[in-house]
Protein backbone atom coordinates (compact mmCIF):
# COMPACT_ATOMS: atom_id res chain seq x y z
CA UNK A 1 0.00 0.00 0.00
CA UNK A 2 1.33 3.50 -0.80
CA UNK A 3 2.20 5.62 2.19
CA UNK A 4 0.66 9.08 2.22
CA UNK A 5 2.23 11.59 4.55
CA UNK A 6 -0.23 14.37 5.28
CA UNK A 7 1.27 17.59 6.57
CA UNK A 8 0.81 21.30 6.22
CA UNK A 9 2.77 22.56 3.22
CA UNK A 10 5.87 24.49 4.22
CA UNK A 11 5.58 27.85 2.46
CA UNK A 12 9.25 28.60 3.09
CA UNK A 13 10.19 25.62 0.95
CA UNK A 14 7.95 26.91 -1.85
CA UNK A 15 9.79 30.21 -1.53
CA UNK A 16 13.09 28.37 -1.65
CA UNK A 17 11.99 26.61 -4.84
CA UNK A 18 11.46 30.01 -6.43
CA UNK A 19 14.86 31.29 -5.29
CA UNK A 20 16.46 28.17 -6.76
CA UNK A 21 14.73 28.55 -10.12
CA UNK A 22 16.05 32.11 -10.26
CA UNK A 23 19.55 30.70 -9.83
CA UNK A 24 18.84 28.11 -12.52
CA UNK A 25 18.08 30.87 -15.03
CA UNK A 26 21.12 32.93 -14.01
CA UNK A 27 23.37 29.86 -14.13
CA UNK A 28 22.26 28.99 -17.66
CA UNK A 29 22.45 32.54 -18.97
CA UNK A 30 25.98 33.27 -17.71
CA UNK A 31 27.46 30.13 -19.31
CA UNK A 32 28.99 31.98 -22.30
CA UNK A 33 31.11 34.21 -20.04
CA UNK A 34 32.23 31.68 -17.44
CA UNK A 35 35.68 31.09 -18.93
CA UNK A 36 36.55 34.63 -20.00
CA UNK A 37 35.46 36.42 -16.81
CA UNK A 38 36.75 35.34 -13.39
CA UNK A 39 33.74 36.76 -11.54
CA UNK A 40 31.42 34.83 -13.84
CA UNK A 41 33.44 31.66 -13.24
CA UNK A 42 33.15 32.06 -9.45
CA UNK A 43 29.45 32.89 -9.66
CA UNK A 44 28.82 29.91 -11.92
CA UNK A 45 30.69 27.62 -9.52
CA UNK A 46 28.74 28.85 -6.51
CA UNK A 47 25.36 28.52 -8.22
CA UNK A 48 26.00 25.01 -9.50
CA UNK A 49 27.33 23.85 -6.14
CA UNK A 50 23.80 23.80 -4.72
CA UNK A 51 21.00 24.86 -7.05
CA UNK A 52 20.20 21.59 -8.84
CA UNK A 53 21.05 19.23 -5.91
CA UNK A 54 18.78 21.24 -3.63
CA UNK A 55 16.08 21.63 -6.28
CA UNK A 56 16.06 17.86 -6.77
CA UNK A 57 16.09 17.35 -3.00
CA UNK A 58 12.94 19.49 -2.78
CA UNK A 59 11.35 17.45 -5.57
CA UNK A 60 11.86 14.37 -3.42
CA UNK A 61 10.64 16.15 -0.31
CA UNK A 62 7.34 17.05 -2.00
CA UNK A 63 6.98 13.63 -3.62
CA UNK A 64 4.02 11.55 -2.47
CA UNK A 65 4.25 7.78 -2.79
CA UNK A 66 1.48 6.44 -5.01
CA UNK A 67 0.85 3.17 -6.77
CA UNK A 68 2.74 2.75 -10.03
CA UNK A 69 -0.45 3.15 -12.07
CA UNK A 70 -1.36 6.36 -10.26
CA UNK A 71 2.17 7.68 -10.71
CA UNK A 72 2.10 7.06 -14.45
CA UNK A 73 -1.08 9.12 -14.71
CA UNK A 74 0.51 11.92 -12.66
CA UNK A 75 3.61 11.89 -14.85
CA UNK A 76 1.82 12.23 -18.21
CA UNK A 77 1.66 16.07 -17.99
CA UNK A 78 5.36 16.14 -17.06
CA UNK A 79 6.23 14.04 -20.09
CA UNK A 80 4.29 16.46 -22.28
CA UNK A 81 6.24 19.39 -20.81
CA UNK A 82 9.47 17.52 -21.40
CA UNK A 83 8.61 16.60 -24.99
CA UNK A 84 7.55 20.10 -26.02
CA UNK A 85 10.50 21.85 -24.38
CA UNK A 86 13.05 19.33 -25.63
CA UNK A 87 11.87 19.43 -29.26
CA UNK A 88 11.80 23.23 -29.19
CA UNK A 89 15.24 23.43 -27.59
CA UNK A 90 16.77 20.96 -30.05
CA UNK A 91 15.42 22.94 -33.00
CA UNK A 92 16.36 26.37 -31.61
CA UNK A 93 19.87 25.21 -30.77
CA UNK A 94 20.78 23.40 -33.99
CA UNK A 95 18.17 24.55 -36.49
CA UNK A 96 17.22 20.98 -37.33
CA UNK A 97 15.57 17.93 -35.83
CA UNK A 98 16.91 14.41 -36.05
CA UNK A 99 16.65 11.20 -34.10
CA UNK A 100 20.09 11.89 -32.62
CA UNK A 101 19.17 15.34 -31.32
CA UNK A 102 15.83 14.13 -29.98
CA UNK A 103 17.42 11.29 -28.03
CA UNK A 104 20.33 13.40 -26.76
CA UNK A 105 19.52 15.00 -23.41
CA UNK A 106 23.15 15.72 -22.57
CA UNK A 107 22.96 19.46 -23.21
CA UNK A 108 19.28 20.29 -22.93
CA UNK A 109 17.77 21.74 -19.75
CA UNK A 110 14.79 19.44 -20.35
CA UNK A 111 16.80 16.58 -18.83
CA UNK A 112 15.50 17.51 -15.38
CA UNK A 113 11.85 16.93 -16.29
CA UNK A 114 12.58 13.56 -17.88
CA UNK A 115 14.71 12.52 -14.90
CA UNK A 116 11.99 13.68 -12.50
CA UNK A 117 9.54 11.31 -14.18
CA UNK A 118 12.07 8.48 -13.84
CA UNK A 119 12.76 9.25 -10.16
CA UNK A 120 9.07 9.22 -9.35
CA UNK A 121 8.38 6.00 -11.24
CA UNK A 122 11.43 4.23 -9.82
CA UNK A 123 10.52 5.33 -6.29
CA UNK A 124 6.92 4.21 -6.73
CA UNK A 125 8.03 0.73 -7.75
CA UNK A 126 10.83 0.38 -5.22
CA UNK A 127 8.87 1.59 -2.19
CA UNK A 128 6.37 -1.20 -2.71
CA UNK A 129 9.15 -3.69 -1.92
CA UNK A 130 11.80 -1.95 0.20
CA UNK A 131 12.02 0.65 2.95
CA UNK A 132 12.99 4.31 2.57
CA UNK A 133 16.46 3.64 3.98
CA UNK A 134 17.02 0.68 1.68
CA UNK A 135 16.01 2.80 -1.30
CA UNK A 136 18.50 5.49 -0.28
CA UNK A 137 21.32 2.97 0.01
CA UNK A 138 20.33 1.42 -3.34
CA UNK A 139 20.28 4.82 -5.05
CA UNK A 140 23.80 5.59 -3.78
CA UNK A 141 25.09 2.22 -4.99
CA UNK A 142 23.52 2.80 -8.42
CA UNK A 143 25.09 6.26 -8.53
CA UNK A 144 28.58 4.92 -7.91
CA UNK A 145 28.18 2.00 -10.32
CA UNK A 146 26.96 4.16 -13.21
CA UNK A 147 29.72 6.70 -12.64
CA UNK A 148 32.41 4.01 -12.78
CA UNK A 149 30.89 1.60 -15.30
CA UNK A 150 29.56 3.82 -18.11
CA UNK A 151 32.65 4.56 -20.21
CA UNK A 152 31.26 6.97 -22.80
CA UNK A 153 27.81 8.43 -22.16
CA UNK A 154 26.32 10.14 -25.21
CA UNK A 155 23.46 11.96 -23.53
CA UNK A 156 20.92 9.23 -24.24
CA UNK A 157 17.58 10.05 -22.58
CA UNK A 158 19.17 11.59 -19.49
CA UNK A 159 20.11 8.14 -18.18
CA UNK A 160 23.37 9.23 -16.54
CA UNK A 161 21.90 12.24 -14.78
CA UNK A 162 18.89 10.23 -13.66
CA UNK A 163 21.09 7.82 -11.71
CA UNK A 164 23.65 10.40 -10.63
CA UNK A 165 21.09 12.71 -9.01
CA UNK A 166 18.74 9.97 -7.76
CA UNK A 167 20.21 9.94 -4.20
CA UNK A 168 19.32 13.62 -3.74
CA UNK A 169 15.70 12.90 -4.71
CA UNK A 170 15.46 9.90 -2.36
CA UNK A 171 17.13 11.81 0.48
CA UNK A 172 14.50 14.54 0.15
CA UNK A 173 11.76 11.92 0.47
CA UNK A 174 13.46 10.25 3.43
CA UNK A 175 13.74 13.56 5.29
CA UNK A 176 10.12 14.56 4.66
CA UNK A 177 8.89 16.20 7.86
CA UNK A 178 12.30 15.79 9.53
CA UNK A 179 13.97 19.13 8.82
CA UNK A 180 14.48 19.65 12.54
CA UNK A 181 17.40 17.21 12.19
CA UNK A 182 19.28 19.89 10.29
CA UNK A 183 18.78 22.36 13.14
CA UNK A 184 20.08 19.80 15.62
CA UNK A 185 23.39 19.64 13.75
CA UNK A 186 23.80 23.34 12.97
CA UNK A 187 27.03 23.61 15.01
CA UNK A 188 28.55 21.10 12.60
CA UNK A 189 26.84 22.26 9.41
CA UNK A 190 27.74 25.96 9.65
CA UNK A 191 31.55 25.68 9.94
CA UNK A 192 31.75 22.83 7.43
CA UNK A 193 29.59 24.83 4.99
CA UNK A 194 31.89 27.85 5.28
CA UNK A 195 34.86 25.61 4.50
CA UNK A 196 32.87 24.08 1.62
CA UNK A 197 32.15 27.49 0.09
CA UNK A 198 35.83 28.39 0.25
CA UNK A 199 36.73 25.06 -1.38
CA UNK A 200 34.26 25.66 -4.20
CA UNK A 201 35.83 29.03 -5.00
CA UNK A 202 39.37 27.69 -4.70
CA UNK A 203 38.73 24.77 -7.07
CA UNK A 204 36.56 26.68 -9.54
CA UNK A 205 37.52 25.37 -12.98
CA UNK A 206 36.26 23.58 -16.09
CA UNK A 207 36.60 20.13 -14.49
CA UNK A 208 34.56 21.21 -11.49
CA UNK A 209 31.84 22.52 -13.77
CA UNK A 210 31.73 19.22 -15.64
CA UNK A 211 31.29 17.43 -12.32
CA UNK A 212 28.25 19.60 -11.61
CA UNK A 213 26.59 18.54 -14.87
CA UNK A 214 26.56 14.88 -13.72
CA UNK A 215 26.55 13.74 -17.33
CA UNK A 216 29.97 12.08 -17.61
CA UNK A 217 31.48 8.85 -16.36
CA UNK A 218 34.84 8.43 -14.65
CA UNK A 219 36.74 7.62 -17.83
CA UNK A 220 35.19 10.57 -19.68
CA UNK A 221 36.60 13.00 -17.11
CA UNK A 222 40.12 12.16 -18.24
CA UNK A 223 39.45 14.48 -21.20
CA UNK A 224 39.47 17.47 -18.83
CA UNK A 225 42.54 16.73 -16.71
CA UNK A 226 45.85 14.89 -16.61
CA UNK A 227 45.21 13.61 -13.09
CA UNK A 228 44.77 9.93 -12.28
CA UNK A 229 41.43 8.15 -12.16
CA UNK A 230 41.70 7.93 -8.36
CA UNK A 231 42.25 11.69 -8.11
CA UNK A 232 39.25 12.38 -10.36
CA UNK A 233 37.12 9.96 -8.33
CA UNK A 234 38.06 11.62 -5.03
CA UNK A 235 37.65 15.13 -6.43
CA UNK A 236 34.20 14.38 -7.80
CA UNK A 237 32.88 12.92 -4.58
CA UNK A 238 34.45 15.69 -2.52
CA UNK A 239 32.43 18.15 -4.64
CA UNK A 240 29.24 16.14 -4.09
CA UNK A 241 29.77 15.97 -0.31
CA UNK A 242 30.55 19.67 -0.20
CA UNK A 243 27.41 20.42 -2.23
CA UNK A 244 25.39 18.49 0.36
CA UNK A 245 26.79 20.69 3.16
CA UNK A 246 25.97 23.88 1.23
CA UNK A 247 22.43 22.60 0.60
CA UNK A 248 22.08 21.83 4.31
CA UNK A 249 23.24 25.36 5.15
CA UNK A 250 20.56 26.89 2.92
CA UNK A 251 17.89 24.66 4.43
CA UNK A 252 19.09 25.54 7.91
CA UNK A 253 18.52 29.25 7.41
CA UNK A 254 15.58 29.20 5.00
CA UNK A 255 13.26 26.28 5.79
CA UNK A 256 11.38 28.31 8.43
CA UNK A 257 12.19 31.78 7.15
CA UNK A 258 9.22 34.16 7.21
CA UNK A 259 10.83 36.57 4.75
CA UNK A 260 11.21 33.93 2.05
CA UNK A 261 7.53 33.02 2.44
CA UNK A 262 6.75 36.28 0.63
CA UNK A 263 7.81 34.68 -2.66
CA UNK A 264 6.19 31.31 -1.90
CA UNK A 265 3.24 32.17 -4.17
CA UNK A 266 5.65 31.95 -7.11
CA UNK A 267 7.22 28.71 -5.88
CA UNK A 268 4.46 26.56 -7.31
CA UNK A 269 5.02 28.07 -10.75
CA UNK A 270 8.65 26.99 -11.01
CA UNK A 271 7.91 24.29 -13.58
CA UNK A 272 6.73 26.93 -16.05
CA UNK A 273 9.78 29.12 -15.35
CA UNK A 274 11.98 26.07 -15.99
CA UNK A 275 10.01 25.33 -19.16
CA UNK A 276 10.26 28.92 -20.38
CA UNK A 277 13.95 29.39 -19.70
CA UNK A 278 14.66 26.18 -21.63
CA UNK A 279 13.27 27.91 -24.73
CA UNK A 280 15.22 31.10 -24.03
CA UNK A 281 18.50 29.36 -23.20
CA UNK A 282 19.72 28.94 -26.83
CA UNK A 283 19.29 32.68 -27.45
CA UNK A 284 21.06 33.57 -24.20
CA UNK A 285 24.05 31.42 -25.13
CA UNK A 286 24.12 32.85 -28.64
CA UNK A 287 23.72 36.56 -27.91
CA UNK A 288 24.67 37.16 -24.26
CA UNK A 289 28.43 36.74 -24.33
CA UNK A 290 29.32 39.06 -21.46
CA UNK A 291 28.50 38.74 -17.76
CA UNK A 292 26.71 42.10 -17.64
CA UNK A 293 24.53 41.33 -20.64
CA UNK A 294 23.70 37.83 -19.43
CA UNK A 295 22.71 39.08 -15.97
CA UNK A 296 20.49 41.73 -17.53
CA UNK A 297 18.88 39.17 -19.85
CA UNK A 298 18.32 36.72 -17.00
CA UNK A 299 16.64 39.44 -14.89
CA UNK A 300 14.24 40.29 -17.74
CA UNK A 301 13.53 36.59 -18.37
CA UNK A 302 12.85 35.91 -14.69
CA UNK A 303 10.41 38.81 -14.39
CA UNK A 304 8.47 37.87 -17.53
CA UNK A 305 8.37 34.13 -16.82
CA UNK A 306 7.38 34.68 -13.19
CA UNK A 307 4.50 36.87 -14.28
CA UNK A 308 3.32 34.37 -16.88
CA UNK A 309 3.61 31.49 -14.40
CA UNK A 310 0.72 32.98 -12.41
CA UNK A 311 -1.56 33.12 -15.46
CA UNK A 312 -3.71 30.36 -17.02
CA UNK A 313 -1.73 30.70 -20.25
CA UNK A 314 1.24 28.99 -18.59
CA UNK A 315 -0.67 25.73 -18.30
CA UNK A 316 -1.78 25.93 -21.92
CA UNK A 317 1.75 26.55 -23.16
CA UNK A 318 3.24 23.67 -21.16
CA UNK A 319 0.39 21.19 -21.53
CA UNK A 320 -1.74 22.02 -24.57
CA UNK A 321 -2.85 18.41 -25.10
CA UNK A 322 -3.59 17.66 -21.44
CA UNK A 323 -5.42 20.98 -21.11
CA UNK A 324 -7.55 20.19 -24.17
CA UNK A 325 -8.52 16.75 -22.84
CA UNK A 326 -9.24 18.24 -19.42
CA UNK A 327 -11.63 20.78 -20.95
CA UNK A 328 -13.40 18.08 -22.95
CA UNK A 329 -13.93 16.00 -19.81
CA UNK A 330 -15.29 19.05 -18.01
CA UNK A 331 -17.72 19.77 -20.83
Number of DSSP strands?
0
Characterize the largest beta sheet: strand count, sense, and whether it forms a barrel: none
> What overall geometry do the principal axes of the alpha carbons give?
globular
Q: Low-confidence stretches at least 5 residues in length (pLDDT < 50)?
A: 1-7
In helices, the fraction of residues equals over 70%
Radius of gyration: 19 Å
Terminal residue distance? 34 Å
Following the backbone from N to C, one meets helices and strands in this order, namely HHHHHHHHHHHHHHHHH
Keywords summarizing the entry:
single chain; 0% strand
What does it look like?
- By secondary structure, the protein is mostly helical.
- It is built from 17 helices and no strands.
- The longest helix is centred in the N-terminal third of the chain and has 27 residues, at 68-94.
- The chain starts with 10 loop residues before the first helix and ends with a helix.
- Mean pLDDT is 91; it is low at 1-7.
Amino acid sequence: MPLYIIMERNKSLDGLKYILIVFVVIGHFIEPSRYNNQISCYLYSMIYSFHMPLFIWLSGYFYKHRTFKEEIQKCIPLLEVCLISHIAFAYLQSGELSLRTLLNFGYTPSWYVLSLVCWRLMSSLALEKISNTQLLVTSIILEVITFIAIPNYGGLLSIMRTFQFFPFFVLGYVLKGKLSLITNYKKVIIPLSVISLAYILYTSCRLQHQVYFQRAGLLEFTEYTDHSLLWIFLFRYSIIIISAFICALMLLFLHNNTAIQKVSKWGQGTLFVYFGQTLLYPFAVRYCGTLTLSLLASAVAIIILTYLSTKPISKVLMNPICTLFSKRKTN
